[in-house]
Amino acid sequence: MTAMLGRLGWAVADTWTITRRDLTHWVNQPAQIVIGLLFPVMIVLMFGYLFGGAVTLPGGGDYREFLMPGMFAMTMLFGIETTFAAVAGDAAKGVTDRFRSMPMSGSAVVAGRSVADLLNSVLGLAVMVVCGLAVGWRFHEGAGRAAAAFALLLLLRFAMLWVGIWLGLVVGRPEMLAAIQILVWPLAFVSNTFVPPETMPAWLAAVAQWNPLSATVAAIRELFGNPGPAGASFAAEHAVALALAWPLALIAVFAPLATRRYRDLNR
Fold first, then answer.
1. Separation CA 120–CA 197 (nearest Å)
2. What does each C-alpha distance from 131 to 35, 104, 138, 144, 205 come to in angstroms?
3. DSSP state of 55
4. Is the Cβ–Cβ distance between 78 and 40 less than 8 Å?
5. Shortest CA distance to 256 belongs to which of 114, 82, 88, 151?
6. Beta-carbon count within 10 A of 215 CB
7. Judging by beta carbons within 10 Å of its beta carbon (0-12, 13-18, 19+), is residue 16 exposed, middle or buried?
8. 203-261, pLDDT tens digit by residue?
9. Which residues contact 101 (CB under 8 A, 6 or more apart)?
10. 254 burial class (0-12, 13-18, 19+ CB within 10 angstroms)?
């Protein structure tokens, strides 16, 4: 038992060391952080004010209140690109190999990256909340349900960052970021983020409703009390359950894969 606790303490200390290293990099590159934070704000302004007037919600409601939960979730999804670029960059520069040569916990590098990226996502989510409040978004179901909605958003981000870590370790080339974006953007747009699936062709609506991003968006709209057509599908009626199930399934698959991939590098 003592030896097990000692190994656990060693792993936690190593994880925090890697986390501080990643956070220090962000502090030393403020322009990159600012650009990453402002991009979703620009999307909100573009869709909320340029295109929003052309969108009529089934059942009525303010479009910007409909949009903001989708933008919160999309910001969490797009964090996969930041994670992938950082992990692949470290692999390409040989930083990952140097970490592996050190007497440190095998899981600390990937765990430290996950903690640092999650903290960065909290900042990004806070910026989006301020942006939402500025354009008229509000939550209407009380602080407890709002806290549950934010927890679901961070759970989605935690799942996505493990996918990003695994992809970064497998690909190992930061120039492949464009390929990751090609995969991520359709996932964001073929969803209920910007328009209700009910307005789509039947086959596309089915894809959008079962999109993991759509589950989180539908769930947090419900928890925030924001407008959003309820729908009659299983996915729409069990949005909160699916918003828990999808991220947990992704974590269960990709967290072990990422840790194993790190330990098996160059074998």
1. 31
2. 15, 41, 11, 21, 29
3. -
4. yes
5. 114
6. 28
7. middle
8. 888 889 899 999 999 999 999 999 877 666 788 888 999 999 999 999 999 999 988 88
9. none
10. buried
